[in-house]
Amino acid sequence: MLKKCMGDPSLIVQTENVEINDNLSYEEIPIQILNRQVRKLRTKEVASVKVLWRNQIVEEATWEAKEDMKKRYPHLFESREIRSRY
Predict the structure, then answer these.
(1) Sign of torsion, CA 29 35 38 41?
(2) pTM metric for this prediction
(3) Which residues form the Chromo domain (predicted)?
């Protein structure tokens, strides 16, 4: 027999509105770069950036390849490059 479930309102997580496309998917939009690192492999160096995405908390930020992010989202790098020149 099924029992009635009494919800606990303190366990509800408040989120921002997520824009869902017609095919029930949504686009991840990067908000800012939190950190940068360069990993040294045997024959090359790989630059990565830690990206904070919209609708996610800081703990869920992901490491992405710097070159890929720079091609897709150049606006994330513009303000930092201007400051680093001076």
Answers:
(1) negative
(2) 0.66
(3) 32-78
